[in-house]
Amino acid sequence: xxxxxxxxxxxxxxxxxxxxxxxxxxxxxxxxxxxxxxxxxxxxxxxxxxxxxxxxxxxxxxxxxxxxxxxxxxxxxxxxxxxxxxxxxxxxxxxxxxxxxxxxxxxxxxxxxxxxxxxxxxxxxxxxxxxxxxxxxxxxxxxxxxxxxxxxx
Length: 153
What we know:
globular, two-stranded antiparallel sheet, 9 strands, alpha+beta, single chain
């Protein structure tokens, strides 16, 4: 059974994942910051590299909107640490190695066993305010579009 992406206006499912900067728990941001979950298929692939480097380039723009970007992939933490270091990425990356969070958010590509590229914007109260799933792994939203959605919070 495939779980749908959390609907706008519903509480974002909580999770804790290991990450490049230690454990990341979604509920730890409640009452403090908005969160953009950015699921991406695989480290070291061209579109993912471009997307995550763009997050680094515009890090201050997201930070200025009081948004923490949490990129999530099914890669293991050591791979994500190498990926982050190689491209001097600012955001800490989270590992959904067991695919539990990707399934919980309805974004796991079951046949390929990696996450679809997807975005889930969550407000300070832990409520989903916007979600978008790319049709193909080779496409991505531009930061300007993500920031426009954030501006609506």
